[in-house]
């Protein structure tokens, strides 16, 4: 049996105010006068003080990202072409020396994807899968402004393509540098803070109760879980710091574990009905008390404590065709179900089971 | 205030049997027919089954390490010259494509040091300190066969030089790859297992109670501590796995924390009386109940549970000159005392205080 050779983010800065060290980080990459960097920033920050703190120099490129929808392969292809056109017109075709993703999970994933696609031709859809990327990415930096997805730590960039929602999973996907500045996640709107944080919490439940886990993943997952409890049940004074660490450690734990039933259902919700990942997870998790009794009970306490109105009856206008597509999408996620049930999952994950779960959402 | 840009091991394999994946790891580095690697292996493994599993190929170099004493600058210089002489005679001066350190903390540190010194001329003593290394190291791999030092995760290689015991601290020091195979630490002799594990435990106490810590280091330190409790108080069935993770996470926590009073005293013991780091820490920690009341109480439970005979009255034959040298060595470790007391440490860490503590050992 072979164990994964886990590629992790090799450099990180953690601490309040660390965002201001981005300039120093980029100075190391800027080696000649016409070197430039590309900032890919969630447009939510456009008129905020953070925008004025971006260390943009003459010749750098800044693109405001539209993350209304989760990242599509089409969108990251268009962004890559935009960078390439800029390079051709202004820089004799020279690639940027660094690509910075600044924002939530979508912005981080877009940063990873563009850095990869600049060096790997043919469009994002052709790389959805595992280890299909051939060439190293351009140097890329991730800076979360909301925590919970684990995107800052992971080797994937989740994309919705023409025929599937699936990441570009590769060692080259991993950021070269992350900056974890708890100041940046202070003041995120309550619902988004909660749904994104729950991505981490739910992932920990699925990983810790799954069949794939080993003691490396367990150590990270258990600590991430304990931090989630402090943040979402105890109002800990260092909640920003702790949530940021929970997200990072949750991401690390995925090295030797896997998500489970909730993510399998949630992928179906996102792909067919367009729900964002965080809220989709919460909707799905809330019907999984048979799978994760303790995890769901604690989750409901967190929902109640923070007065979150989970969407209900979301299936009432869903067509039979949509339902079948959701079931198919969910059922197709073999490793996730394998992590839940072990190799016998195929007998257990029937369309009836999935229809029953979706119908209760 | 600037936060450290923490360089971490970028690739790791964790799991029982992972040692056998070393061959695959090295195959990636072996790009041409005359490429070779250097194995630096604790000689304790010489006649053990592990020796037969080292993936040595024609042209590779294997050196059995004498770690009777902790690594000296003189010794790593001699090893480096030995590799260079081999390179000159057999490989037209070509450096190895990888250096593998296999063993305990000393062997790992020697692996790091030789990989650095092959690319940085002038001898190890000239690089003892912080960020003095100019050039990246040769690719280097760390494989612990005993756990607790955190050497697998750290950016230092602790060396005893002509006038100090001090590491070569540098981003280049960090391993390119580690392999954490819990099989390798099964069957370590009891005392050594305990003393080395306590290095991790004690370091966690010092870090968690210190002034330097932030929430990144706290998350890693607390989990490492919880794992130490499972291993040393609860005889957990997955003790090998958990101790290995405790060591790794303890090493990670040092990114944003510092050791304290125990390591300061223990450095004095090692430098003047030659005690190995692990046992030196235990001897020193046992007199620090005023500094770390809870930590020392738990430590004594662990000592009792495992029937460890801590050396006592070790100062009875020490000369006044030796005592003064220990005091001077210990007092000189400014960042450690700063971590204990904050900036006012100079008023508090008097020769009398240190003499009192050493005298009780």
UniProtKB/TrEMBL annotation, chains A, B:
Gene3D superfamilies: 3.40.50.1970, Dehydroquinate synthase-like - alpha domain (1.20.1090.10). Keywords: Oxidoreductase. Residues 11-182 form the Alcohol dehydrogenase iron-type/glycerol dehydrogenase GldA domain. Residues 195-294 form the Fe-containing alcohol dehydrogenase-like C-terminal domain. GO terms for molecular function: alcohol dehydrogenase (NAD+) activity; metal ion binding. Signal peptide: none annotated. It holds the Pfam family Fe-ADH. Transmembrane segments: none annotated. The keyword Oxidoreductase applies. This is 3-deoxy-alpha-D-manno-octulosonate 8-oxidase. The gene is kdnB.
């Amino acid at each position: 049996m072979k164990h994964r050779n886990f590629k992790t983010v090799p450099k990180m800065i953690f601490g309040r105010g660390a965002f201001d060290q981005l300039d120093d980080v980029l100075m190391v990459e800027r080696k000649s006068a016409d070197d430039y960097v590309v900032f890919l920033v969630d447009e939510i920050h456009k008129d905020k003080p953070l925008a004025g703190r971006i260390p943009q120099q003459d010749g750098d490129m800044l693109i405001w990202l539209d993350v209304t929808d989760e990242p599509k392969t089409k969108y990251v292809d268009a962004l890559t072409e935009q960078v390439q056109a800029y390079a051709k017109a202004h820089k004799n075709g020279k690639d940027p020396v660094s690509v910075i993703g600044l924002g939530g999970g979508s912005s981080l994933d877009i940063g990873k994807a563009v850095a990869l696609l600049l060096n790997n031709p043919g469009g994002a859809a052709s790389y959805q899968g595992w280890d299909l990327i051939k060439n190293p990415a351009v140097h890329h930096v991730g800076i979360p402004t909301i925590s919970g997805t684990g995107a800052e730590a992971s080797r994937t960039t989740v994309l919705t393509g023409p025929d599937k929602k699936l990441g570009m999973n590769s060692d080259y996907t991993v950021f070269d540098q992350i900056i974890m500045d708890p100041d940046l996640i202070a003041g995120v709107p309550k619902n988004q803070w909660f749904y994104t944080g729950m991505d981490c919490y739910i992932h920990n439940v699925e990983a810790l109760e799954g069949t794939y886990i080993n003691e490396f993943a367990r150590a990270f997952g258990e600590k991430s879980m304990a931090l989630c409890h402090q943040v979402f049940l105890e109002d800990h004074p260092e909640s920003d710091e702790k949530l940021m660490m929970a997200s990072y450690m949750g991401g690390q734990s995925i090295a030797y574990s896997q998500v489970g039933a909730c993510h399998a259902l949630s992928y179906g919700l996102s792909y067919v009905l367009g729900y964002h990942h965080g809220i989709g997870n919460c909707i799905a998790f809330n019907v999984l008390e048979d799978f994760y009794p303790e995890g769901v009970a604690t989750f409901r306490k967190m929902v109640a404590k923070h007065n979150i109105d989970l969407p209900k009856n979301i299936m009432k206008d869903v067509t039979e065709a949509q339902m079948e597509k959701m079931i198919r999408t969910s059922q197709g996620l073999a490793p996730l179900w394998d992590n839940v049930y072990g190799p016998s999952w195929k007998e257990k994950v029937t369309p009836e089971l999935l229809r029953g779960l979706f119908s209760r959402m």
